[in-house]
Amino acid sequence: MNVNVSPIPTIPKPQSNTLLLIDGSSYLYRAFHALPDLRSPDGFPTGAIHGMVAMIKRLRDQVPAEHAACVFDAKGPTFRDAWYPAYKANRSPMPVDLVSQVEPIHEVVQHLGWPVLMVPGIEADDVIGTLARVAVAAGFEVVISTGDKDLAQLVNPSVKLINTMSNETLDVHGVLAKFGVLPERIIDYLTLMGDAVDNVPGVEKCGPKTAAKWINEYGSLDGVIAAAPGIKGVVGEKLRQALDWLPMGRRLVTVDLGCDLAAHIAGWPGLDALAFKAPDEDHLLQFYQRFNFRTWQRELQTQPERGHTRDLFDQAGAPAPSEQVPVALSASVSASVSAPVSAPTPNMPAPLAQTRYETVLTRQALAHWVAKVQGAAVTALDTETDSLDPMQARLVGLSLSTEPGEAAYIPLTHDGPGAPEQLPLSDVLAALGPWLEDPLAAKIGQNFKFDLHIFQNAGVQVAGFVHDTALQSYVLEAHKPHGLQNLAQRHLGRHGLSFEDVCGKGAQQIRFNQVDLDRAALYACEDADMTRHLHQTLHPQLHREKGLDFIYAQLEVPASRVLQRMERTGVLINPALLMAQSGELGEKMVALEREAHALAAQPFNLGSPKQIAEILFGQQKLPVLKKTAGGAPSTDEGVLEKLALDYPLPAKILAYRSLAKLKSTYTDKLPLMINPQTGRVHTHYDQVVAVTGRLASNDPNLQNIPIRTPEGRRVREAFIAPPGHWLMSADYSQIELRIMAHLSDDANLLAAFAQGLDVHRATASEIFGLPAQAVSTEQRRYAKVINFGLIYGMSAFGLAANLGIERSAASRYIERYFERYPGVKNYMDRTREQAKAQGYVETVWGRRLWLPEINSPNGPRRAGAERAQRTGPPTGW
Question: What is the pLDDT of residues 251-272, one digit of tens each?
Fold first, then answer.
């Protein structure tokens, strides 16, 4: 049985026997975390306000109801706090930026005509439950908009839940399919699992599957309690330990359906006071002006009914976004759309052999596409720009795709030879603005972080990007390329135009706004169409794998939104300090150069590997430790570090290289990278590079600023906070070792952490057979290298080189380590065998680290894969 996840139905005529209830407290948080860090001109946070307004405007259009309420939690304790003082004790305080938006949200919801309820001493869930019970008794159908699983206990043939953030609808069958139990058993289900968010204990180690299994096997919570003495295993023992608590747990998770609401709803238990009211447009206009919601402000000022978008639809004869969009477009609308720009695309699968790609140059065509995206369940959206710098790029055009093989390109600022007249950018953004800024209008992108920046450059705060095909590919196959053309060829068998195909290469490359419009439109339409097609192909694969689906939906997509805000905010630096450091570094480099020339007894270029090799190996006859692929003696950093232990010249060259890198990469370059509009440096965080799940930072790389030398640490001093703010650094002590202790379940390693011991000293004590207090500083250093080195696959050869000891001694240390920590050895052996059997390893949360070379006949490649599999769990936790 599948969960009913059909989109919320669009029905133009409200019905008087439906009550629509919003779990306002749930949506406060979801809106706050779903949208970028939007701010009004005076710096006041507005993201949660914007999300709430968009949600309830769309709900009112889509759900047929004449009665409604938006229910929020009131301040202060509730009756559950009296029952159980630790109720919700672990909840973090509401973020300060959200606290400041709560009152404006209450205000605007009322301006929009919604009754608002906050009942002191009673939680929003209980108010909603009581309203639903009374409404059903009065003959109403009830629709509850929430993301809270606790309210699934309210579902019955007359009550259903809708999650507007995910387009999920849960009726009785949907609850059973999603949770494994019927709505009337959700209370039992929640009692067994507990609720960590509300600090309600359940049965330890009892997750959703066990809870559903027990309820289905024994009929109810009471049946589970009666059967507890005979339930075997660790979880059975945990159940018996929780028996005294379960009645209170059940009481806490049960929604109260009999709250006294008479003092808060006129005429209670009647529902007349919950009738929708007409929006207060005067106060709404003032509100939108106060918080700089320009799109909604234009709607009210231009045409109260539908705003500027309504005008466009009137011209085209097309239905408004909130009306039903017929499958077959009328002849008048079809005629207003420009002709397709593409022939059948080569190598395209048969179902997509005929594409319908359009270039939008008229208001009628634009109105038609606004109607299409407003009526679509999901739309692929892509931007074309005049630059790849997300903070500086200008919007040249945008493409949309809602159906297989169908897409449109809306050119905006093409100015190449023969470019036709295009719709004004302001008019296009005004028409698409409500849809672009609607968090409930689902959009797909390929690297949507970039597109968010581009729209923000144009003054539009796009919301509703729910899927990213690059992230989907990364979670499925982190070890493969994730560019659109690569993905289309690999998964769809499609070959579209590349960027170089339309813009050229190297010195001959032109900007996209100079590209011939027909060719530009074909390229842009292909991008949107293939992005939508890829989503249809990749997302079901993710959805079938719960671990991968969790990584994608709960980690990567939310992280991408956070990273985009970080990129947008940038980091403040002190350019004067960096320039002063550049001067000092230059002076030190000159001094090192003189010293190196004196040691070599002649001048040479310290930046030339060839000249360095001639001096070191030709004239000074130093031993050749390694050769390049071409057979020449190597002068790489590893070679120079080894030579520097015995010879002074390689040490001078290394010191010179270190300062030269600091100077060229940071002190000289960073001041030049300050954005003139923001006064900050803006890096790019790439999520789809490292196979382990790590981030990469580039242009500039702010993730790996050197810290081992005094000069490197001084570079960090140039990163500053504005007045009234602080920069905070946080680190989790020995996180890799703690994770290894958890994964391996090694008794000695777990005991060291449980007792709060210095784990490196404890390891030294185990390896050297000494009491912990007798371990020397040098022995602790050895143990630290061993602790971290072995879990990352360091061999005896590597350990010997790192510690400067004989290889045989390193081998003995490794043997002793694994004798003292057999659980670690067993875990590593198990993981290696698992990797060989399935070609990948998984982290705790389900991220996969693919190891194509794990069974390679090539020894070094196979060994490299074996080392890589050990890094998977800690780095991809």
Answer: 999 999 999 999 999 889 889 9
CB 477 within 8 A of CB 470: no
Name the maximum alpha-carbon separation found in the chain.
101
For 318-456, where are the E strands, in sequence order? Answer: 356-359, 379-385, 395-403, 406-411, 443-445
Region of 769 please: left (phi>0), alpha (psi -120 to 50) or beta: left
pTM over 0.90: no
Q: How far apart are the first and last CA of the chain?
A: 32
CA distance 267 to 829: 71
Tally of residues, the chain = 877
Note whether 658 and 709 are within 8 A (CB).
Answer: yes
In the predicted model, is pLDDT for residue 870 greater than 60? no
327 phi, psi to nearest 5 deg: -65, -45
- Angle of CA points 478, 481, 486, to nearest 5°: 135
pLDDT higher than threshold 60 for residue 302: yes
pLDDT at 721: 94
Task: Assess contact for 817 and 786: CB atoms under 8 A.
Answer: yes
Do 719 and 572 form a contact (C-beta atoms < 8 A)? Answer: yes
Contact assessment for residue 69 and residue 274, using Cβ atoms and an 8 Å cutoff: yes
Position 858 pLDDT exceeds 70: no
Query: 80-104 b/e with 16+ CB inside 10 Å = b?
Result: beeebeebbeeeeeeeeebeebbeb
Strands 356-359 and 379-385: unpaired
Count of other CB atoms within 10 angstroms of residue 829:
11
Confidence bin at 794 (pLDDT 50/70/90): confident
3-state secondary structure of 514: helix
**CA 272 to CA 294: how far, in whole Å?**
34
- Give, for 67, the enclosing helix (H) or strand (E): strand 67-71
Q: Give CA–CA dist 818/769, Å, rounded.
A: 14
CA distance 633 to 651: 17
Separation between Cα atoms, residue 685 and residue 289, nearest integer Å: 34
Pick the closest to residue 59 from 147, 158, 145, 160 (CA basis): 145
Nearest to 496, CA basis, from 653, 344, 605, 702: 344
**Spatial separation of the C-alpha atoms in residues 107 and 514, rounded to whole Å:** 48
Rounded to the nearest 10 degrees, how much is the dihedral formed by the CA atoms of 734, 739, 741, 744?
A: -150
Judge contact between 464 and 440, C-beta under 8 A. yes
Burial, 147: exposed, middle or buried (Cβ in 10 Å; 0-12, 13-18, 19+)? Answer: middle
Tokens of 498: 């590349």
